Amino acid sequence: MNITARAAAAVKHLALAIGLGVAVLAVALGGAGFLTAAYYLHFAHEMDSVRAAALTGATLVAAAILLAVIGAAALKRSKKPQPGWLSDFTGLAGLAVRLAAMTIRRDPKKALIIAAVSGVLVELLFGDGKKEK
Fold first, then answer.
1. Tally of domains in the chain
2. pLDDT tens digit string along 49-84?
């Protein structure tokens, strides 16, 4: 199977999965709406409609707060500590030093040319742009 056919199959699979997810979400939201309506109607039969609506709303707000607290705790627990930028920089600097040492050992002339070119690039990228007289 060539790359184009694989990409087309992957896109088709992704589109079907998204469509199925949207359909499941729509049906679940409809079911939740009917359950909420049944909850309201149950209490409306027992008490006046204003109190039943207030009780239904308070229950939904409490459920939302509970869901938010549980979700925040789960997200905090699942978050992995990321290394700081300083450790990334030291790893990159160590790699650059090893690469430079290897280049100097193999061919000192090339190392001198690379150093000159990198100096010019650094000056162009990070220089303030003012010319000294």
1. 2
2. 888 999 989 998 898 899 899 988 888 888 777 667
- Nearest Cα residue to 41 out of 55, 29, 28, 31: 55
Q: Is 18 in the same domain as 40?
A: yes
How do residues 78-126 score in pLDDT, each as one tens digit?
877 766 767 776 777 788 778 778 877 888 887 778 778 878 877 877 7
Calculate the CA dihedral of residues 105, 106, 107, 108 and round it to 10 degrees: 0
Taking the C-alpha atoms of residue 133 and residue 130, their distance in angstroms, rounded to an integer, is 10
Same domain, 96 and 59: no
State whether 109 and 51 are in the same domain. Answer: no
**What is the domain range of residue 103?**
85-126
Percent of the chain's residues with pLDDT above 90? 17
Shared domain for 21 and 59, answered yes or no, is yes
Angle at 24 between CA 21 and CA 29, to 5 degrees: 120
pLDDT tens-digit map of 17-46: 899 989 999 999 999 999 899 999 998 988
